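From the shared-data thread, chain only:
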Amino acid sequence: MQHARLSRLQKIAGPVDEALVARLPLKYAQVIADGCAGEGAAQVSSERAEAARGYCLGLGALPGELLAAASDRAIDVLIVATRRVMGDAGAEAAGQDAELRRNAVDGLGGVCAALHAVGALAAEQMQRAFDAVMGAFGDYAMDNRGDVGSWVRESAMSVGAALVRLQLQQSSASGASELESMCAQIFPVLVKQAVEKIDRLRGHAGTILQSLLHNDPPLPGIPDAEAILAAVPAGTVMNWQSSKDSFPPLVGLLATEAYHYPVLSGLVVSVGGLTESLLKHGRDELMTQLEEAEDPVSKHAFGEIWGKIAFFWNSFLVAFTVAGSPKARGKRAEKRPKSHIFRSKKWSEKRPKSGFWAKIGF
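Structure, as tokens:
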């Protein structure tokens, strides 16, 4: 396959010097480097930034035979391009926008796959690439288009899963410890993305999570494997984009050590989305888990979780009210209706009037 790609490239380029073709990876890498703003570097022009976006994908499409001689340079420049760099004014530096970071993650996956196909991907290179992809899961950049960091996270899911499968193919030669470490990192972040507020990302994360859980051959080192395999059994047809369908099995993972924080933080992001359906389903599943917990330790743990979410929500309402107080915004703020998510008549009738719910302020 790699030879075929190289032949097609030479046909497109026409009869050119082989030495020139061999220098393509370095040329592509230099264009990417010129279009990226490093720490403390000057702003780059929009033309160079646009070129860097395209060359990230171009570098990932080159065949492994060409990339092998410049593999370190290709991987290093793409890793730099995946990182978010802020300018002096607190905004993103030019040349480090979400499109570039997304393309750099995609290009990194392509480079690793091409190098692996020709046996030129070193274990250290794989580890550096995987660490960069894991870092991309923390991209929550926002601009006037919304959560543009979600583009980067979506690519990170696909590329991260692909790297895990590449490592699985190499594990027989290099041992399983590296693969187990990768599984320990990727499964919690996939669970987190599967309970966050964006439907598209929940669907993508859930699909990848399910495919990795039931990969053939099975992956070793899945954190709390028994619990998560029970939550997402093989052959389950799930609409992962629907919080009504996806929240019940995943919120139950709050009882596990590995997925406690990812599920909780993902639910908090969902609360921040102010979408009533997400809040309703997340709230209902937390109540169900609390009611079904039989031992006092579990009840106390779920009570603390719910208390944290309640504190976050009430803090948000206080900030929202202060920002729109009559002093700040005039009499219009006095007419603002109270939040209907937790203060609705239906919720007030459903919750107990004393005990745990009264203690956390509901």
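DSSP finds 19 helices and no strands in the chain.
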